[in-house]
Specification:
Layout: E1 2-5, E2 12-15, H1 20-32, E3 36-40, H2 46-57, E4 61-67, E5 82-89, E6 102-103, H3 108-118, E7 125-128, H4 139-147, E8 151-154, E9 162-165, E10 171-174, H5 181-189, E11 198-202, H6 209-221, E12 226-228, E13 234-238, E14 247-249, H7 254-267, E15 272-275, H8 288-294, E16 298-303, E17 314-319, E18 324-325, E19 328-330, H9 338-346, E20 348-355, H10 367-377, E21 381-385, E22 388-394, E23 407-410, H11 415-425, E24 432-435, H12 447-450, E25 454-456
Parallel strand pairs: 2-15, 3-14, 6-7, 10-11, 18-20, 19-20, 23-24
Antiparallel strand pairs: 1-24, 1-25, 3-5, 4-5, 7-9, 8-9, 11-13, 12-13, 15-17, 16-17, 20-22, 21-22
């Protein structure tokens, strides 16, 4: 699909979709639990659906409840009803043996976390995915699983198709984590090894530390036993745990919230209120709003008296005027913010340096190279660095004068690139067309509709 976006103002109140990171972790924990869990207001996106499909194939029962008029930010079906709850009947850790490969679609989180969980069983489980997933290596994770007793076979460079077979025997392994998902996978699986088995993990490199804090919050809730070094360089996890069923709402996604926030600021919308976020949530990308304040915006939390079932009791109000202020931002803990921070840098005065984020190159795309190339088409002065970008802002995009026709950009099939470019298009000199726009549905199915994009077939 192609999205055509014309410059316009964007403001109002937006309910943020549920956190992808929370949704996938809750699905996997519920699938492994002994009993029935209820996941209220999960993220109904391509990635969420991929994870639910994997859980079903591994033996979990998942039933949907849909309803209308709940304020839920999930996309409605033809009857106007949106997904409001998954009821998950867990396997108690007794995983089924799928007869066919499990397709994770575009979901790297599902792939890496489920790979380690599959290593707990005695039957081979094969994983595959889309063209982007076929380029994302699980090599360091597979090497660690081998040291813990599992057998793993993969295509070249540790990419799918990958077949994993347990059992998990524990032991000690060192795993460098340019993506935190390698470590999160091992941490979620290791407590479910048989009683008496101890798994030790040395972590010489760790990016995206807040995602590990998020994963540990699930282990704490399940009362799994582990020890760790203060700097997360070492973990010792004790087997014999059993995950228990649970019930609760899924918090809004701070990563997704960055896109309507940027769209409002860039378009001069005059203000935006975001609902569904929890200021006490441990998602790392909540740091985005501190970055916005450094660039000259104001972000204020207040209790939301009109909260509904889908939402949480907080509202976040944003205000600010262009041009923003440039600055230096270390994105090691929050590399998913690189695309949106790059477009905000284009609407700032002075340099915006996005640093310490080399691992942004191993996401769905090489986001550093991709954003440098696409912003250049918009007339932005941008310098690609090995670990990030330097955006020399001039208070906006200067790609062409009005009336010179449609400017075509490539979304590279990357949901965060598509949404970042869409936000930038609201402040461009004329209409912009973005290819591969359907990929926004990976995490935020309603975003392009919310900002008024016109969708066309490729």
């Amino acid at each position: 699909m192609r999205a055509v976006i014309k410059p316009r103002s964007f403001s109002g109140t937006v309910r943020v979709p549920a956190s992808k990171s929370h949704t996938i972790r809750r699905l996997l924990v519920a699938a492994l639990a002994e009993g029935v869990s209820e996941i209220w207001y999960p993220l109904d996106s391509l990635d969420g659906r991929s994870c639910a499909g994997v859980c079903r194939a591994l033996g979990a029962g998942i039933e949907e409840r849909r309803a209308a008029g709940t304020g839920c930010p999930n996309p409605p079906d033809e009857a106007g009803e949106a997904l409001v709850r998954w009821t998950v009947r867990g396997t108690g850790g007794r995983l089924a043996a799928p007869g066919t490969p499990l397709d994770v679609g575009n979901s790297g989180t599902t792939l890496f976390l489920a790979l380690a969980l599959a290593a707990l069983g005695n039957s081979p489980v094969t994983f595959t995915g889309d063209e982007q997933i076929k380029r994302r290596s699980a090599g360091p994770l597979l090497e660690a699983l081998g040291k813990f007793g599992a057998a793993a076979e993969s295509a070249e460079n540790g990419c799918v198709p990958i077949t994993v077979r347990g059992p998990w025997r524990g032991g000690r392994a060192s795993v460098a984590c340019p993506t935190s998902q390698y470590l999160s996978a091992l941490l979620l699986a290791a407590p479910l090894a048989p009683a008496g088995i101890v798994t030790e993990i040395d972590v010489p490199l760790l990016n995206e530390k807040p995602y590990i804090e998020l994963t540990l919050s699930y282990l704490d809730a399940q009362k799994a036993r582990y020890e760790r070094a203060g700097d997360f360089s070492y973990f010792r996890i004790f087997g014999g745990a059993s995950y228990r069923p649970f019930s609760g709402n899924v918090s809004g996604d701070f990563s997704s919230a960055a896109f309507p926030a940027a769209a409002s600021i860039i378009s001069g919308g005059g203000g935006l209120t975001l609902l569904g976020l929890d200021p006490d949530d441990c998602q790392g990308d909540r740091a985005f709003f501190a970055m916005l304040e450094k660039m000259g915006c104001k972000a204020s939390w207040r209790k939301n008296d009109g909260k509904d079932a889908a939402g949480g009791g907080w509202a976040l109000s944003l205000s600010g005027r262009l041009p923003l202020r440039g600055g230096t931002f270390d994105l090691n803990a929050t590399p998913d913010l690189l695309p949106v921070m790059a477009v905000l840098g284009a609407f700032a005065e002075g340099e915006t340096a996005l640093v310490n984020a080399a691992h942004a190159r191993i996401k769905e795309t090489d986001r550093i190279a991709v954003m440098a190339g696409e912003l250049s088409k918009l007339g932005v002065d941008v310098l690609e660095k090995p670990d990030g970008l330097v955006v020399r802002g001039r208070g906006g995009c200067r790609g062409r004068r009005p009336g010179t026709g449609l400017l075509r950009l490539d979304g590279h099939g990357d949901h965060r690139v598509v949404m970042a470019l869409a936000a930038a298009a609201l402040g461009a000199a004329g209409p912009v067309e973005i290819s591969g726009a359907e990929s926004a549905a990976v995490t935020y199915p309603l975003f392009l509709e919310q900002i008024g994009a016109e969708m066309k077939q490729q």
